[in-house]
Structures are given as structure tokens and as C-alpha cells.
Design a protein that fits this description.
With 105 residues, the chain is mainly α. The chain contains four helices and no strands. The chain has helices spanning 2-35, 46-56, 64-79, 84-101. Helix 1 packs across helix 3. The termini are far apart.
Length: 105
């Protein structure tokens, strides 16, 4: 019985760690998508962005804003060195992602 409890605890810990990693990645990617709005000439619906966060981000995830900021800052830095083709590819990809996430209305 003790072995089963230990195993269950380890599984739950791994699930929790995986969920945290997904949340961090989501925050960083979202930061990149959001900061790309102006340089890519896009206009997101602010309410749609807020609704996506309400639906998809755990309110107890206190690190989400931090990782969102990291993603945004890294994207800002990348824009400074992008050539035209890279920016075109990036912006097209971001537009598709934003459309998929429902950020345009």
C-alpha cells in the first residue's frame, strides 16, 4: 500500500511539473504574440485577449505575468535585428497564431 501511495505522489508531482512547464511556455509565447502586434501591423481585440487568458490561465499561476514579460522582452530584442524576410515570416506566423487564439474580432 505504501508503495502505491509513493507512486501516486510521484505521478502527481510529475503532472504538476508538466503543467507548470506548459504554463511558462504559454506565457512566453503569448508575450511574443502580444508584443508583435504593433511591429506586424496587427490589431488585436483587447476583450478577446482578456477572454483567452480568463479561459486558459489558472488564476493561481502567480508566475504567468513574469514569464509573459520575459517572452515580450525577448521578442522586442529580436525585432531590433530582424531582416525583412525574417520579419515577414514571423509576422505571418504570429497572425495565424493570433487568429487561431481568437484575438481578432
Amino acid at each position: 500500500m505504501l508503495k502505491k501511495l509513493i507512486f501516486a505522489a510521484l505521478v502527481l508531482a510529475q503532472i504538476s511539473t508538466a503543467a507548470q512547464a506548459i504554463s511558462k511556455k504559454s506565457a512566453m509565447v503569448l508575450g511574443k504574440v502580444l508584443v508583435s502586434e504593433v511591429p506586424c501591423g496587427l490589431t488585436y481585440n483587447q476583450e478577446a485577449v482578456g477572454n483567452w487568458i480568463d479561459k486558459n490561465i489558472d488564476p493561481s499561476d502567480l508566475e504567468f505575468p513574469y514569464f509573459l514579460s520575459i517572452g515580450a522582452a525577448s521578442m522586442r530584442a529580436q525585432f531590433k535585428t530582424m531582416n525583412t524576410n525574417r520579419k515577414t515570416a514571423h509576422c505571418r506566423s504570429v497572425e495565424k497564431t493570433a487568429r487561431y487564439l481568437g484575438f481578432f474580432k
